[in-house]
Amino acid sequence: MKDVPKEAKEKEIGKVSTYFSHVSVAAIKLSDKLKTGDKVHIKGHTTDFEQKVDSIQIERDSVKEAKKGDHIGIKVSEKVRPNDSVFLVK
User: Fold this and answer.
1) What are phi and psi of 9, to 5 degrees?
2) Which residue, 8, 25, 51, 77, shows the most beta carbons closer than 10 Å to its own?
3) Is 84 exposed, middle or buried (0-12, 13-18, 19+ CB in 10 A)?
4) CA distance 47 to 62
5) What is the pLDDT along the chain (90 residues), one digit of tens a residue?
6) Domains of the chain
7) Contact 79/48 with Cβ under 8 angstroms?
């Protein structure tokens, strides 16, 4: 059985716009939906890690799900940079 390429298991759902280092939060502009419990892969020139989304905030309000076009904040385990791509891991 052939391995499925990693890219096939991931779908780009947004881009990091800002990183708030003092609270380890990434501001992300979504191009697709995201919900708590999803696993994301954040990748850029010097960024490359996966993590589970424990909480999502829009305008400082916690939400369970965000949709295309939303500007969200999520807590991240590592430093991210503007324009890093955010992928949904299937």
Assistant:
1) -90, -5
2) 25
3) buried
4) 26
5) 555 565 578 999 999 999 999 999 999 999 999 999 999 999 999 999 999 999 999 999 999 999 999 999 999 999 999 999 999 998
6) 6-89 (2.40.30.10)
7) no
